[in-house]
Write a structure and sequence with these properties.
Shape: elongated
Number of domains: 2
Helix content: 10-25%
Number of strands: 20
Radius of gyration: 24 Å
Low-confidence stretches: 10-17, 23-29
Largest sheet: 7 strands, antiparallel
Number of helices: 9
Mean pLDDT: 89
Order of helices and strands: EHHHEEHEEEHEEEEHHEEEEEHEEEEHE
Oligomer: single chain
Distance between the termini: 39 Å
Structural class: alpha+beta
């Protein structure tokens, strides 16, 4: 596999392609989400992410293009973790969109005369929600830089937590070791409400100098993160039991061809799986103050294809997630709420979930419906 250094090229034809693509999209019916600045974030950044990032103490910024040209880099292959975050459920889309939680992104790439290739990245969120890093990332190759065969390349990176870690009502932050493409970095992560900031400083043989440079970034950008300011080299040892990385809440079920086909978001709930499955294929339950709360799954046959299945259930309440329609209905019965949910699978099959909880137990209802809202199929139910 290729070991990349930071490369950039100009592609004016790409700009033309993007303009054509945008023109072909009908934006007239889309309602733009309203973004409201947090006053502290606006004061910190001056209301302009790029101008704010430019205050960083580095030189040789990579050309951003302009005058009808577009700069394309392979920075994703060099830094597979750059600007990639998770919320409590899943990885968040990388792009600005009215359909995502991201309002705006900005980044600066440097080929610093002393430190080499590095980046600063800032993200503004529509809503204040907690973001997480993962302990591992991978990115496929870019054919622009390596030819068609580069698509088969996998660029891996791993992150390790240090003891420089904090989370309080105002912000969360951490300093991590990042390893990718045979290079080690100190990675600084910081979130203050709607603002998410990330940067790396390459390790050039002197950990103290690298840490001092990260502290300089802290000061230059006005972040004034006390955990960064007070960090010492001894604080940068990798911890054995990290606690800040994203934890996958999904449980895989119905294994097929060495992988699972169905995933329920159940790991972050009180539900416990019954290994014997007293009912259905997979049975989960827990005891609340009001009584038993349960749900279980079965795979059922159907003569309907996906389109007819959806048409036949369209009058039911539903959730939509991961290209699936999850239909459900529930009714009270002797102090209990009993329900049935179903979503199309593939090959004339659908997943059925039966559930029950004490009728007056609002917390139990929330837990049940948090599972129903998020059902993933490996094939997205795409086959009839």
């Amino acid at each position: 596999m290729r070991k990349y250094t930071l490369i950039y090229i100009y592609r004016t034809s790409v700009v033309l392609f993007l303009l054509i693509a945008l023109a072909s999209c009908d934006q007239s019916t889309q309602i733009k989400r309203k973004f409201v600045w947090d006053e502290d974030v606006k004061e910190l950044t001056g209301g302009n992410l790029y101008d704010w990032l430019k205050k960083a103490p580095f030189d040789n910024e990579v050309d951003r293009g302009g005058d009808g040209s577009l700069v394309i880099t392979n920075s994703r292959q060099i830094f597979p973790f750059k600007g990639r975050y998770y919320n409590a459920i899943e990885e968040v889309g990388r792009y600005e969109s009215i359909d995502t939680v991201i309002f705006r992104k900005s980044e600066i790439l440097f080929r610093d005369s002393l430190w080499g290739d590095l980046f600063l990245h800032a993200t503004l969120l529509y809503d204040d929600q907690e973001f997480f890093l993962s302990d591992g990332y991978f990115e496929t190759g870019n054919p622009i830089f390596g030819g068609v065969e580069a698509v088969g390349d996998m660029h891996h990176s791993s992150l390790s937590e240090t003891s420089v870690l904090a989370k309080n009502p105002n912000y969360k932050t951490g300093i991590y070791w990042a390893s990718t493409n045979y290079q080690n970095y100190l990675l600084g992560f910081y979130q203050r409400g709607q603002l998410v900031f990330e940067t790396v400083v390459p390790l050039k043989g002197d950990t103290l100098a690298t840490l001092d440079k990260l502290k300089e970034v802290n000061q230059s950008l006005g972040l004034n993160i006390p955990e960064w300011k007070n960090a010492e080299v001894s604080d940068l040892r990798k911890v054995n039991q990290p606690k800040s990385f994203w934890q996958d809440p999904f449980l895989g079920m119905y294994p097929k061809n060495n992988s699972n086909d169905v995933f329920l978001k159940i790991k972050d709930t009180p539900f416990v799986q019954d290994g014997r499955a007293c009912k259905g294929d997979y049975y989960f339950s827990y005891l609340s103050e009001g009584g038993d709360v349960y749900l279980y799954t079965t795979m059922q046959p159907t003569t309907l294809n996906k389109e007819d299945f959806i048409e036949g259930n369209k009058k039911k309440a539903k959730y939509q997630y991961s290209h699936n329609d999850i239909f459900y209905e529930e009714h009270p019965e002797s102090g209990y709420m009993s329900g049935l949910a179903k979503t199309y699978y593939m090959g004339n099959q659908y997943l059925e979930i039966r559930f029950g909880y004490p009728e007056k137990d609002k917390v139990a209802k929330q837990h049940v419906h948090d599972v129903l809202k998020y059902i993933k199929m490996l094939n997205y139910g795409g086959a009839n």
